[in-house]
Amino acid sequence: MQLSEQEIIRREKLDTLRNLGINPYPANLYPVDHTSKQVKEDFSEGKKVIVAGRMMSIRTQGKASFAEIQDSEGRIQVYFNRDEICQGEDKTKYNEVFKKLIDLGDFVGVEGELFTTQVGEKSIRVHDFTLLSKTLRPLPMPKTDADGKVFDSFTDPELRYRQRYVDLVVNPHVKEVFVKRTKLFNAMRNFFNDKGYFEVETPVLQPIPGGAAARPFVTHHNSLDIPLYMRIANELYLKRLIVGGFDGVYEFSKNFRNEGMDRTHNPEFTAMEIYVAYKDYNWMMEFTENLLEHCANEVNGTTDVTFGEHQVNFKAPYARVTMTDAIKQFTGFDITGKSEEEIYQAAKGMGIAVDDTMGKGKLIDEIFGEKCEGNFIQPTFITDYPKEMSPLCKEHRDNPELTERFELMICGKEIANAYSELNDPIDQRERFEAQLKLSERGDVEAAQFIDNDFLRALEYGMPPTSGLGIGMDRLIMFLTNNPSIQEVLFFPQMRPEKKALELTEDEKAIAEILKVSTQLTIDALKLQAGLSGKKWDAAMKGLAKHGLVKVTLEGDTKTVEFKG
To answer: Quaternary state and partners of this protein (predicted)?
Structure first.
């Protein structure tokens, strides 16, 4: 492992601490009794406190020093005085341990009393301190100059998402996003619980991937010797519970879809789904707008939020537009009564990429997605979807070509999806079979399985039910003004981290020569490297294998070019 100069120095300090009899990673409890926030909010001169956190700044002035400790609630200034900490003749703890062996980023506990500095800053006068954990890597500490300009900020998204633990330390404002995320879940959970609905858990590993049209992740169970699929949705299991006698169930569900990644999609994501017996999609629309108004207030203290260039108001009620009217409004095309071929030709004429694997529902979905959904900025319910788009949804009571379904659109993105649930087992079987035929035509998103156990459950009878699904990651993006899903996930999925090349000493020697000259004849390079035949051959082969050198022949002369 290649260590930087700073990392080497910190390891040397680690050894020095141990030689002084100081355990840099003590196991015993440290009796913290105040956070930095509690110190400031309940401040009184002379009050005894014990706090702990990371050392984030140190200003040494001879036998006295000021520093800042950062804990989970913020920062607090601490004052170290040599004679206060070392009251006897031995000044090692201050002169050696504090001044020379404590680094920025180290976890330190301090005991002391509160006082106010001459410039009015609430601080802790330290009587004693304890090293709680020695850091071996320096934190990327942002610096602010006299004009307020910030330098060396830890802002590279690739590094921030991959090393979220560092991001949270040096960019404390990032934590607020995740505090709000937890507030959102709590607000939603309390809203459901107050209405008497029951939180449940359903399987993540499933014998049949159902409840949505998506490509699953596949694994294998060794003992049962069967394939299993990671959950793409929990809908069919929750509806089984309605069959079983629950009037209202909900789940915050980790779902997994083996599909693309972008600023609004992660292969692992969180959805909330709720199913309530004896309700329909009209009731669910009102329920949804009241739920989101409540959540916005609980998370931000207001229903007004900013998302990019848009001001969005979550206050109920929300506009309602049928899908047919939306497509007609933004394309001039009326899908009512049209055949699959007519819709295919219309989509093609609009410049939408279509192919022969797409059924009627997929074609309509493409038209709406390309031409309509981006126009809906304020919360809007898009209602009454064509039957072909909704294999789990009840047929519309007034139009057999449609279903009783809505999606909630905000800033051109779907936030929620809801149905009057299909509870006719014969109709449901026919819908599943139609989806299976689409899959056989090549539609990779169509359902590839028929869940016969779910159909059996429906045959035992499911009462009229309405269900709602909300993408929790996308919702918190809107509530915190984050255009990227990676900003609202602690640990988003990332491409594999590129490993640093480990070169031999001979390879390094040749590489260093080429870094200076960029290109040399092979004879000149070999002369400068001063390597024997075997060592030379091995080093050049290694560099070529890593793609760091390119050898070209011009006439009788071989030239080596550095490609690193």
So the answer is: Homodimer.
